[in-house]
Amino acid sequence: MDPLPASLAQAETPAAVIDLDRMQHNISRMQQRMDALGVAFRPHAKTSKCIPVVQAQIAAGARGITVSTLKEAEHFFAAGIADILYAVGMVPGKLAQALALRRQGCDLKILCDSVASAEAIVACGAAHGEAFEVWIEIDSDGHRSGIRADEPALLQVARVLHEGGARLGGVMTHAGSSYDLDTPAALAAMAEQERAACVLAAQRLRAAGLPCPVVSVGSTPTALSASQLDGVTEVRAGVYVFFDLVMRNIGVCREQDIALSVLTTVIGHQPEKGWAIVDAGWMAMSRDRGTQKQKQDFGYGQVCDAAGQVLEGYTLVGANQEHGILARSGEPDRDIAARFPLGTVLRILPNHACATGAQFPAYRACRADGTTERWERVHGW
Amino acid sequence: MDPLPASLAQAETPAAVIDLDRMQHNISRMQQRMDALGVAFRPHAKTSKCIPVVQAQIAAGARGITVSTLKEAEHFFAAGIADILYAVGMVPGKLAQALALRRQGCDLKILCDSVASAEAIVACGAAHGEAFEVWIEIDSDGHRSGIRADEPALLQVARVLHEGGARLGGVMTHAGSSYDLDTPAALAAMAEQERAACVLAAQRLRAAGLPCPVVSVGSTPTALSASQLDGVTEVRAGVYVFFDLVMRNIGVCREQDIALSVLTTVIGHQPEKGWAIVDAGWMAMSRDRGTQKQKQDFGYGQVCDAAGQVLEGYTLVGANQEHGILARSGEPDRDIAARFPLGTVLRILPNHACATGAQFPAYRACRADGTTERWERVHGW
């Protein structure tokens, strides 16, 4: 059988492409900022779920990582990374898995924000002779989980842990509300609110004679907006490694900083409507419509040419499972079939890099010289 | 090390659970309907992407399957299923993969809706001595892809294929707009519109002396709403196998028919807000908010107890990557920590079964006797 032309055979789409130059730039920018602010940096691996990406973050100066599932912890520990924060509240049913990791030598830190959880942790620790390292989650913005820094529950939980034989490792918070903001002033104020709440929690613990070595804060928007981090020992951030259109709308990156895109092929047209149909539907882009309520709605993603240059005004305006609908804003582009003929390869910048990456078993990591490598991701729980 | 209690150790969450009784009921209902309407049934494997699910559909009487990616085609062909429709428009870059499948004995049918695509198919066929079986995609509702049944392009495309040595297998359409409807009358009208358009296209081909053995229509809502299918030879549908909250709102199933749910654990509370935090965030549920614009918005999903009984009024009102926010509609449930204590296991019915299933590497298939089995899914492209 004759080979098909290399250019066609190579275009396996959809694919999740990492632009390694952009990624490296994003990693350096964040690490330099953290160095300047005098804090350690613990990137959140949930964005990439990918060993070479995390290794690049560590090579740049990161100390330890954050994970969102115990499967990620197992995956990165097997790759030689031992200092891991599991940043989701611990429940009794997951203690056996956490214990197994610690027994294998993983320096796993777990999270707690209630007396019930603290009691389960110390009971398991006592039963198995294990001093779990526990960080207390602080609610700095009413966004989701955690104990408010001024609540009596903070000291209660800390005492249950401390007196029960757990190791109080510190306090941590995540100002997730920073995702709702889009001005430098509001972002700086949220970064200060996040810092102040976490530092206050640490002060209350220390004033009560309890240990609190670590004060950990962070989200990508606040990490890039804080003007000072007095009292903070480390910062966590995830999506900055790739960035995305949500972060562009928040104002902490430009479109040309976005390192993750979905490579796609034009598979058809509806010229009267000005549509090109592409093979990146929601299965590739994810259903994330994070820019829908922001200052600029990019639909299911911003269209770029195959080299990654933004094609202004062209977005994915709709998505089915394996079909994306590409159109121009404003008047329909009736020349769309000539502009993007059948088989044209394009790239789509995603709303939310964490969600889009998760749709793929692996990335295609692209170097500036055009060579690529397959980089696997962790999938599932 | 002492074992943890079995009930806790077993609760590995989040997990995608299939209720096999419900699934079998959904499969029988659809197959009986198709038998009564006198048409063959070709289920869409894109919903489950899972061999045992598809085998159950075939055991009930399905003839052949539909897939949304060539990777699915390879996966199901390797499991012994040869009659496969790849229901996404063919592009030059994917012909080598399609050709390889046919050379291995797969009875793969491919799709075409433009002269450009037809020309690429016949050129590849001629170069490799392969008579591809091609179905022409018909646009019956302006939803996405396809040629309208009355367009001159229909005969043009058919002639390029037929004269170029491809095998004209038939016409197919998918009335995706049926997802926007929610009354029996509107659904029946859309089913008739879908049928009439596809039959008209077949009649035009036959009148022009071109072969058109297959007339294939379908979507879950229209398949369950058609009153007659004269001239149609087969129907396709996907999500009916599990159903979901979107289908419930459209009116083609009840909540108690939904066979897919996400098993989740309560990991914390914010009692003042009436929130329980669970370990099913959008990574588990997907970002699909399909019920957002329907008659009842279920947020990120309807909460059920561990046995699958609906807990009226409780939904996931928010989702982060690994955190779901569970709340009651109306007044905050300030007793939520007592109602759903830390560690409580619940099930969440999804907005969209295709999207939620795709977040998991495998299902936990649950029999009525409580035994479960791990059923793998295809992931990626």
TrEMBL record, chains A, B:
Belongs to the DSD1 family. The keyword Lyase applies. Keywords: Lyase. It comes from Cupriavidus malaysiensis. Gene3D superfamilies: Alanine racemase, D-serine dehydratase-like domain. Pfam families: Ala_racemase_N, D-ser_dehydrat. This is Alanine racemase. CDD domains: PLPDE_III_DSD_D-TA_like_1. Residues 259-367 form the D-serine dehydratase-like domain. InterPro entries: Ala_racemase_N (IPR001608), D-amino_acid_metab_enzyme (IPR051466), D-ser_dehydrat-like_dom (IPR026956), D-ser_dehydrat-like_sf (IPR042208), PLP-binding_barrel (IPR029066).
